[in-house]
Design brief:
alpha+beta, Beta-lactamase, 9 helices, 27% helix
Length: 310
Amino acid sequence: MSTLPLARGVLLLVQGDELVMELATGSAGDVAETPCSRTTRFQLASISKQMTAAAVLLLAEHGALDVADPVDRWVPGCPPQWRSITLHHLLTHTSGLGHWSDYPMIDLSGPLDPDGLLERFRRVPPLFTPGSRWHYSSPGYVLLARAVERAADRPYAEFLAAEIFAPLGMAGSFAGAPGDRDDVAVGHRAGAPVPSWELDIVNVGAGDVWCSADDLLTWLDVPRRGRLLRSASVSRMTTPHASTGTADGGYGYGCFVGPLAGEHAIHHSGENAGFRGFAAWLPGSDRRLVVLSNEEGLDLSLIDTALAAD
């Protein structure tokens, strides 16, 4: 474990229910006296998309929405070019909407009201016909969070807290800005603290969840043990609906589905300003790996190293 390139953060590797590797190192705050631990809350960044997908699937189970619904049913003010985009397209990154680099007019760390954010999304025409290609899109997941809010008739963060985190016992997890919560990591870049991205509006649904390493292990029991969601919903989440055209294989709902360390895996990485993370379940060996770091430059080659060392 001493050879793993983890300067700040926590790594846990579990096989079955047995902890086989644990590493917590570096400082969680901006002073060395605050060590990272298994209870430290880190930004999950794009791993948050799995929670967004689960929220949509929960609402679909309750008949509040359908993944085949057009996005303009749930998000007011959509332009005509979006009329053929469905929630399924958004979930699978096949909507034609761009990623953050396609929206240079959006400051990911600055304040912006929901209507202003939607207006900026509307400025960029779809990159392709929905369903015809795969293109990773965090803005698409922002729209999904807006759909969840409207279908559930409550704020997105409240829905996650009541319907996802509480039933799973993820007591340390929350979505949005941390406010005055304790045990919250400070993001770093090249060893220096950096400002967080805006998480309540600009990155809602796309990278807004904070989670401890232990809670993230619990989260991986959603596909592993069928917790929270019905079996049909788990199947929808973990089926590769679209090819990514890369070694990652395919994309389901909020997760990559494909090879990892020579095994089939359900996984996702995440990167926000000052944070980087990874979560995976390998069904063949029943291993779960979580890596959460408050150092943006984390070398994710440690994933293969950790899995090979087991």
